[in-house]
Amino acid sequence: MQVHTRIAEIEEELTATERRLCAALMADYPFAGLDTIQSFAARTRTSSPTISRFVTKLGFNGYQDFQRHLIEEVREGKRSPLDLHRDNRAIQGGFLEDYLAKAQNLMQEAATTISAHQFDRICDMLRNEKRSIHIIGGRISDALALYLSRHLRQIRSNVQKLPEDPESWPEYLLRMKPRDILFVIDFRRYQPSLLQLATRASEDRNAGVILVTDKWMSPISRHANEVIATPIDSGTVWDSYAVALVLLEAMLTRIAEQDWDKTRKRISRWDALRLDSQEIKDGP
């Protein structure tokens, strides 16, 4: 179990001092916890015994055990398809049947880890037309960002899909107003350029950041107002984005159906203006 997940599970049991430790850890997760216990104590104005009791409460056998888990999280977050491939992977039944079963397991895991309250809260943020929405993903996950943006545009106005080229991002940053939303999808082998974008959006433009990531947590989480960690480990050469896609579909459906009359009218106008490729004739 990830350290941040353990913290979330016992959050209500933490003392004020322990909450301060959590805040310091999450502000630079996971690297703050990789410092020496003396340095961590000095930075948080606590003591080494206090930190030792805190990590024990989290279920670790001391500070070194706590750090070993954080190091493993960093290592897992950098794994590539070459690292993930296993020649001796057991397959139950046919390959497709086995893969679909693994995807189903990921869906079941998501059902227990993604909070319904957070889901509703994020949908309300995306539905609020007083906020412009700016959407982007990583090298592979940008396909999910494009899917989200194309559907969300049919539901509401002021939805921007940022291009992949960082050279064009300053234009979009200049457009961002306070309380606008930067929606980022960033899975392991996280992109430093997306972290820089999220930092600028949060600190320079005072925009809210919503992050969809995995359990190893993109560094963007330090700047995010909302973080959803989706299960992606399929046990194969590729991480699975199936849960992330279903999550986005669920968000789009909820947003569209919350005010269906308004959505219906916008889609009707959208369809009326769409060029029918079958009717477009080339000139002589």
Task: Explain this structure.
The protein is of the alpha/beta class and 284 residues long. It folds into two domains: 3-77, Arc Repressor Mutant, subunit A; 114-272, Rossmann fold. It is 53% helix and 8% strand. It has 13 helices and five strands. It has helices at 3-9, 16-27, 37-44, 48-57, 63-77, 81-84, 95-113, 116-127, 142-155, 169-175, 192-203, 242-258, 260-273, and strands spanning 133-137, 159-161, 181-185, 208-213, 226-229. Strands 2-1-3-4-5 form a five-stranded parallel sheet, sandwiched between helices. Helix 9 (142-155) packs parallel to helix 12 (242-258). The termini are far apart. The mean pLDDT is 87.
Q: Under the CATH scheme, which architecture of the largest domain would be assigned?
A: 3-Layer(aba) Sandwich
The strand count comes to: 5
Q: Rough shape? A: globular
Give the averaged pLDDT, no decimals. 87
Element string (H = helix, E = strand): HHHHHHHHEHEHEHEEHH
Q: Biggest sheet, open or closed, and with what strands and sense?
A: 5 strands, parallel
Number of domains: 2
- Which CATH class of the largest domain is shown? Alpha Beta
Low-confidence stretches: none
Strand order of the largest sheet: 2-1-3-4-5
CA-CA gap between termini: 66 Å
* Class based on secondary structure composition and strand pairing: alpha/beta
CATH homology superfamily name of the largest domain: Glucose-6-phosphate isomerase like protein, domain 1
| Number of helices in the DSSP assignment | 13
User: Beta fraction of the residues?
Assistant: 5-15%
